Amino acid sequence: MHKQSLFHISKREALPLHKALLIRGGIILLSLVFCGLVTTVLTGENPFSVYGTILDGAFGTSRRLGVTFRNVAILLGISLAVTPAFKMRFWNIGAEGQVLIGCLATTACMILLGDKIPNILVILISLIAALAAGALWGFLPAFFKAKWNTNETLFTLMMNYVATQLSAFFIIVWEVPKGAGKIGIINQTTKAGWLPELGNAYMLPILVAAIMTGVIYIYMQYSKHGYEIAVVGESQRTASYAGIKVDRVIIRTMVLSGALCSLIGFILTSGVDHTLTTTIVDGRGFTAVMVSWMSKFNPFIMIAASLLLVTMDRGATEVSSSLGLNHSFADILTGIILFFIIATEFFITYKVSLRKSGKKEG
Amino acid sequence: MFDFVSFFPRAVMQGIPLLFGSTGEILTEKSGNLNLGIPGIMYVGGISGVIGAFFYEQSVGSGELNGLLAVLIPFLCSLIGSLLMGLLYCFLTVTLRSNQNVTGLAMTTFGVGVGNFFGGSLIKLTASEVPSIALGRTSIFFKTALFGETNGWFGQMFLSYGFLAYLAIIIALGASFFLNRTRPGLHLRAVGESASTADAAGINVTRYKYLSTCIGSMIAGLGGLYYVMDYANGVWSNNAFGDRGWLAIALVIFTIWRPSASIWASILFGGLYILNIYLPTGGQMALMELYKMLPYIITLLVLIVVSLRKKREDQPPASLGLSYFREER
Amino acid sequence: MTALETVKNAIKMENITKRFGSVVANRGINMELREGEILSLLGENGSGKTTLMNMLSGIYFPDEGQIYIHDQPVTIASPKDAFDLGIGMIHQHFKLVDLFTATENIILGLEGKLDRANARKKVQEICDKYGFDIDPDMKIYDMSVSQKQTVEIVKVLYRGADILILDEPTAVLTPQETEKLFAVMRNMKADGKSLIIITHKLHEVLAVSDRVAVLRKGEYIGDVATKDANQQSLTDMMVGRSVSLNIDRPLPVNVEPRVVIDGLTVFDELGVKRLDDVSFSINSGEILGIAGVAGSGQRELLESIAGLYPISSGSVLFTPPEGGEQQQLVGKDPMDIRKAGIAMSFVPEDRLGMGLVGSMGMTGNMMLRSWRKGKGIFLDRKDPEALAQRIWQELEVVTPSTSFPVRRMSGGNVQKVLVGREIAQAPSVLMTAYAVRGLDINTSYTIYNLLTEQKMQGVAVVYVGEDLDVLLELCDRILVLCGGQVSGVVDARTTDKMEVGALMTRMGGGQNNA
């Protein structure tokens, strides 16, 4: 009888960086080839023309280029925002809600204050309101986690839908016109509360994300807070031993994560979409969780990861629209790439070898 | 006046997909797998059934549908679709020991994408001549009340549903019995509490995780099938299923991992979803959205209270979210 | 059919090798257990005893070699295979599901219809037969350590195992309980069962076993009949050369009370009393040993003083060495203590789980004590890096660099990093818990010397230990804890093992009888 598993799995000694990068790069290529195959099978198109269409959809015109990079900036921003909490091993999957509540707070300020006070004040108050709302959304799960060890994954998950339903409620309260069930572009004529454009419609989010990348990198790497977060993530007992106030760090970090998420929400509503819908975040809060994780919490790798996912997303949308297919095709491709990347980690962490027969004498 | 007799069946019909989803997720979580891909799996379960029914209706053309096949084909397609998703989740998290949260979220992105893509593109892909996916002919067989035409308040409240609704309740009761009264159920709970203990006791942890997660996925997928085929009369519209998958996960917490409690709790959640139509404020769209928030708020409160009371029996399975690797040292 | 008939082997292990990554845990081991005997498997911590036994119980699978059970070649790929072959192992860390009852745990993994009532009856029968005192319906999370161990043993008996392996079963037991266990083991032997007991306590080896097998650094050194062995010969086999401890112990200097503990009482999170009205003083210029059965409140005591454990009543008064006002430590957390200018160092029992950050290198770990010192919001890396370099050289830590994760270092080097850092704080109080556990002899002596050096510099040193010989030779005074209470304070120079051993069990021992 052959009972033992065919494979022998053991932890690797750390793989040299270039080798690990090579494996990751190879897997991403493989996933892209696989995506092409899937596309071909589903649509019957020539795979090379599919890739062409993808690239064209993402970078083909200066407008597309701009939208792509703006979307990268938004996704990157949310990924950076969730990173401090993850590094602390706080499984916050509530970024979706934290961004959305920022959008909602911004919307409220724009609608209620727009054209009543100077524009700069509207923007400032919107920003503060958004940050406060996101901070609250981060504070609640962190508070209960710190005090009573309430499961944060489930807590933040629920908070997403509280934010969604709250937004849905206010969308109907503020709907334009009555009965439309949506808000439409806020202050379309006066542009009250709109963030000014920097050069073009895309620069502002890109700039914000670029600054955030640097700041988060320095914060995590060189600041005392970053050190505290790393220690708490490794072992809460070690943290207490070192005089780190664990509860305070958990709450502070989640407030920061929540506030940064809602900063992106503020940018989305005030600087990009100028509206509020329940789907304005469009799953990017969840995607950001994956981006942050697969980048090993490194802000610079997150840039590449965001770029990859957004390119595929934009490209696949182009492919499906050129073929008259449904735009959800992009989600399928995103999913496939993620599965490949998730699976790769195993082969980087572990060594798999065929098991020598245990029956023969050594 | 609040018309409970007509309200109740509507609440039940809202609740059944949640009941399928939560029963499936409870079985999954009892093995220590926190499958956040359940919303995606429910989409896949729904669309797989739709695809099966679509091809069957196409192949029969304008002829008469065979009742048994009309039910069986979508049913099996749905099971197969969700089974594949369950296998994918297990392969990534159990065999390849990936992070469960990340894998689950990717599955949901993927699954919702699959659902909406095929829902929106099936006609185009198969070059069919129908204007939209409306499987009314198949749906009739799913909607047929299992106990025939019934009258009176009792009939209306308890006997007026299609077979999948009763199946959901039977599965929930069965799962409850399985977890509490059978040996494999005891073993499964041991795996979720402490995989290394279960392993040391000679329980095949990998097999239990695979089986419970795959079976759980198939059960959850039936929730998607019920939604399109029965509740939505066989009409697939993109994103119509909405956040019900997450609501099912909320239900798991709300019932403190007890499938039998899910039966009434799913009806409660379903009722909250449509409550506003039956209240004096009826028709106020804005308030309806707030009622829809109630299940999440209540779940949050339950989550908090449970963690406050620290009763050991009420906590999430102890190894929830963790991969197990025997030779770790 | 004569007296020459060969004794049958219950287990025979042939050329067994097991590796973890690049570490060889067991190398080419040949060993046998005869039917109806009690075999002691002796070896220092880390000598590969548990790994070897785990290959019999199906937890690990050997990389090379062959196992025979009752002279049949077998493949043990899973714990289930082991059960089927009649092998039952009682692990050091209990493999029990907290949430289940004793009965549920005992029948876990078995097949057939679930019949709780019948199982309960059988459990009760076994308990009655051997005189075990457990309630079959009690949940594990309500049980004491010795009750849990009893459940483990009943579990194995329930399955009708005829080969039992006990992994350091006495580490958590009082002498009385140990005696009871040995009686049970002898009963089982009389029933024809074969037993292996893993231990590193020589007197237990001599008391209970028929034969002793010795492992050292993953290799099989040999075996000897117990009647032909004595403590000295076994020690020689175990450590490879004859050691008498000969720890250098200078007389204490300038002894004065540094920390005075009075009426200290603490409860754990489940509301169980862990320390009960504990009073004593920690003096400068001497090493205070703390002895006791595992779980008698040692951990709670040190953590309470260090500000890591909630204190329900009592006082902890610190007298600064430079004179000045006494300070109350109760109510202060580690950061408060530090800010009050009290240099208290603490080498906790759980090195990687409390004293160090496993994923960080030496430098990152030096920062655990100094991370607040940088300018503004930024960290200072220079000083910690310099300190790491110094410890790396002075204590001969084996590591490729100061950024190499300490988790991947060997146990001895991990402890050098931890102790080195704590001593570098120039403490006035230095508390250590099981400072030499799992370390080789040489590193252990390095640690003893470092502690003695600190004592001579006037530091108040606390040494919580488990090896009575070391406590007797290293310390100046020994405080004995028993069930969370102080059962005595003795002069280490004049006391003996008998006296300390008696104090350790004066109140019935460990937490279990609390």
What would your notes on this structure say?
Chain A is globular, with a radius of gyration of 23 Å. Chain A has 13 helices and two strands; from the N terminus they run βαααααααααααααβ. Chain A has a domain at 74-303. Chain A has 362 residues and is mostly helical. Chain A has a two-stranded antiparallel sheet with strand order 1-2. In chain A, α4 packs across α10 and α8 crosses α10 (246-273). The two termini of chain A are 20 Å apart. Chain B is mainly α. Chain B has a domain at 14-243. In chain B, α7 (163-181) runs antiparallel to α12. Chain C has 514 residues and is α/β, with parallel strands linked by helices. Chain C has 17 helices and 20 strands. Chain C has helices at 49-56, 79-84, 102-106, 116-130, 145-158, 175-190, 202-208, 231-239, 298-305, 334-339, 351-355, 362-370, 382-394, 411-424, 441-456, 468-474, 497-504, and strands spanning 9-20, 23-34, 38-42, 64-69, 72-74, 87-90, 163-167, 194-199, 211-216, 219-225, 257-267, 273-283, 287-291, 313-318, 327-328, 344-347, 429-433, 460-464, 477-482, 485-491. In chain C, the strands form four sheets. Chain C has a six-stranded mixed sheet, sandwiched between helices. Chain C has a six-stranded mixed sheet with strand order 16-17-18-13-19-20, with helices on both faces. In chain C, β7, α6 (175-190) and β8 form a beta-alpha-beta unit. Chain C is globular, with a radius of gyration of 25 Å. The N and C termini of chain C lie far apart (54 Å). The relative contact order of chain C is 0.11. Mean pLDDT of chain C is 86; it is low at 507-514.
What is the compact description of this entry?
In chain B, 73% of the residues lie in helices and 0% in strands.
